TrEMBL record:
This is Methyltransferase. PROSITE patterns: N6_MTASE. Keywords: Methyltransferase, Transferase. SUPFAM superfamilies: S-adenosyl-L-methionine-dependent methyltransferases. The lineage of its organism: Bacteria, Bacillati, Bacillota, Bacilli, Lactobacillales. It comes from Agrilactobacillus composti DSM 18527 = JCM 14202.
Amino acid sequence: MRIIAGEFSGRHLKPVPGRKTRPTTDKVKEALFNIIGPYFDGGRALDLYAGTGGLGIEAVSRGMSAAYLVDRQYAAIKVIEENVAVTKAEAAFHIMKMSAARALVELKAKEILFDLVLLDPPYQEQQIVKLLNKLRDMALLQPEALVVAETDVTVLYPEITGFTLLGQHQYGITEVSVFKYIK
């Protein structure tokens, strides 16, 4: 695994040991960012199921001002800390060891708004619609924020109030869906 493009391009990232985390492959990560960017002019990113932190790190490498990296596993947090250190830009990252639900409550209390949200929950917990509704109802999104969801290809989305589905792209068993928040 590596950082694909931008300021930190080519730097290698460590994986989380064991099988509890499924890192986004470089191929999917590159495709995902080519769809939504590929580069940004500031803004905040939220990587809600960060795992290795690779998606949030990639977002900052490509121009986001800051990324909030959330994971509840101790092993993942240790790897995220090591991967963030590789960037030598630690101040751009906020690492939160907690559940996604608790993180959303804390971010709401701090009135932090996001321009980009990256959702890659465990495939067996396909809760993307629930998470989109929470992000909207908790007012955590900037107008026209993008939300990228990585799921398996079996997930179907109903119409979700406040969001437009911009597109879906399949990569083997993985599907990347891009939503735009319409306030």
